[in-house]
# Entry
Amino acid sequence: MRIDADSVVNSGYIGNGVQWDPYALNYGDGEVEISDTDWQKLYARLDYMQPAFIRMMINTGSLVDRQGVAVQREFEHLAPLLDYCQSRDVTVLFGDWGGSLVDKQTATIDYDMLDATVDYLEFLICRKGYTCIRYFNLVNEPNGDWSSTNGNFDLWAQAIRHFYDQLKKQNLHDRVLLVGPDAAIWTTEETAWVTRCRTELEQQIGLYDIHTYPSKCTVNSGQYTDILKAYRHEVPVGKKMVMGEIGFKFVEAADSLYQQENERRIGQSSHASPSDSQMFVFDTMYGIDMADALFQTIAAGFSGSIAWMLDDAMHYKESPDKLKIWGFWNIFGDEIFGADQEVIRPWYYAWSLLCRFLPQGSDFNPIVIEGAAGIRGVSATKGANRTIAMVNVTNESQHIRIQSSAMQCLSDSRVFRYGEKLYRLDGKNQILPEIENATYNFAQGEEFELPAQSLLLITNYDY
# Structure
């Protein structure tokens, strides 16, 4: 792997993070509350991960009555999330799922509800002081037939324009940038949504984003990079693009055996949503695939990625006891769903490394990897700090040489490995470095062994 340390291909990174929404809190047997002990557990786990970027969605319609938006209603469920983000300077992409804003059946917009949503933003940012909210997502995945806009770009754009005008009236348009198109994509067939944002909503859209749930074979083959580049290419010069949601779904025929196994595991679970659960979050492999996907989003020019999702207890689907299992854990494991569900799942450790050591403000160097199929990597700098990371998605160990004629010696470095039986944990559920206080001279070249299905990360950031 050759690193051009004198050049930057992706600058001013917003960061990596996770979807963290207010919790369902009713799973079929009445309202429950998260205990102080569990809040502290959540905060401690997030503190280790150090997410720089969190997406947080609500339904404003549940807060509105005849007098307008009832700002204190359900606020006690939202405040602990925003308090955490504000206290840790985490950038929040806030938003409304859209069900109460646009009527799917009549294809009409509830302008009063849009105005109430802006009022609620004003309450959160100006009156409560949550300046961590820097972006707003109006309607989730508006290109889909499952969305409240039913795939109607003109309808969604009409709502965006009105919402932006209301932000301007309350002097919020410079404090909160609108995100779009927030389209869910699997191929390059939806690029028109980005193109039309550029040509019709350039003033209104401050940050571009898409959602992807690619098949494992699409990512591991490298085809994913080409798909992402097609969307990034449509973004206007000077604007950034992020991955608003990223997770894996086994939608391609080549991944049919994985899908069969996923369905088998769902069938064995008493609380997994049959139609919306990813049971491979319990496997080390999922962390490898998420690293592969992340490295390709960075190579395609994206400025951040938000993993779907933090905690199973946030969302249910078919019924209150059928949870969307996608998270790093279920915080109600001990209380409701079984103590084993509260245990941290392996992919948390991989994603934590990629949040901690590819932080907000990073710049990425161009890299060239030759003669090593299934290997991808990134090289990031921020000030005097540097991280080099590589992932091997093949089933064979590979020998890698890292070289950069322009890179100075990297001293006081740590090496982390993630893979089946490769990583070690301390008593606080934190991944331990394999090597500490190392010095590497990449100008001369340094060699590393990259085992099958593994992640290697080298960094001189403080641990």
In short: The chain has a mean pLDDT of 96. The two ends are 25 Å apart (CA to CA). Residues 71 and 123 are 7 Å apart (CA to CA).
